Amino acid sequence: MNKRILMFGLTIFAVICTSISAVAQNDAAAKSILDKASSTMKGYEDISMEFDYVLDNEAEDVKQEMSGDVLLKGEKYKVNLFGSTQIFDGSKTYTIIPENEEVNINDADLDEESSFTPSKFYSFYESGYTYKMDELKQVNGKKVQFVKLTPIDTHSEISSILVGIDVKTNHIYQIIETGTNQTRTILTAKNIKTNQQVNAAAFAFDEKKYEDLNYMINK
Asked: What CA–CA distance (Å, rounded) separates 108 from 120?
């Protein structure tokens, strides 16, 4: 399973940078709109959304398109993509892969800066990037302001990330990541619902259920 794609096609590199020059490159307006979107989304008790995923590399004649969905409540999440499901219940991550009839269970370290999870979706830009305002576009009938993020790490496999923010709702609507190999991954959010009073049971993993199905449980 490609965890980088499962976790919305974004890998966050741990970059410790305290140089004044890097800070000076950041656009105040860009930071303001990113912070506003982050604050808006973090303010919800829970969030559910569907999303479209596109991977495109014209040079290699590769294009993949698919859809998924995610449920978020605090640090907990449940993601469905590629026919697989990943659940984080607050302490462990469960990756369920029906095709292989297996479940992988791992302890999660929320303090690990290099680990990217859906719960960091609205704050990943805060470390390791410089950013500036980009274009304001009409996308699928929405007015979307894009902010361009550039990794500080010169060895990063990411060339740039465009974060598109719906001006009306302050929701992150689209993320376009361009790799150094010119591969683009595009994630577009849709059907966002908030404050649905999601029960904690939504993030519970029933190990016995998968044992009864003769799944291999890897811990």
From this structure: 13
- Cα–Cα distances (Å) from 14 to 85, 103, 138, 151, in that order, read 26, 28, 33, 10
pTM: 0.77
Q: How far apart are CA 150 and CA 132, in angstroms?
A: 9
Give the integer Cα–Cα distance in Å for 29 and 154.
24
Amino acid identity of residue 185, one-letter, is T
Half-sphere exposure of 117 (CA within 13 A, CB side): 26
Measured CA to CA, the distance from residue 137 to residue 30 in angstroms comes to 15
Pairing outcome for strands 129-139 and 62-73: unpaired
Strands 129-139 and 92-97 come out as unpaired
Tell the burial category of 175 from Cβ atoms under 10 Å away from its Cβ (0-12, 13-18, 19+): buried
Per-residue tens of pLDDT for the chain, all 219 residues: 444 444 433 332 222 222 223 333 568 888 888 888 888 888 899 999 998 989 888 878 888 898 999 898 988 889 898 889 999 998 899 999 999 999 999 987 554 443 445 555 555 666 678 889 999 999 889 999 999 988 888 888 889 989 899 999 999 899 888 988 888 988 899 999 999 999 989 999 999 999 999 999 998
The dihedral built from the CA positions of residue 201, 204, 207 and 210, taken in this order, carries a sign that is positive
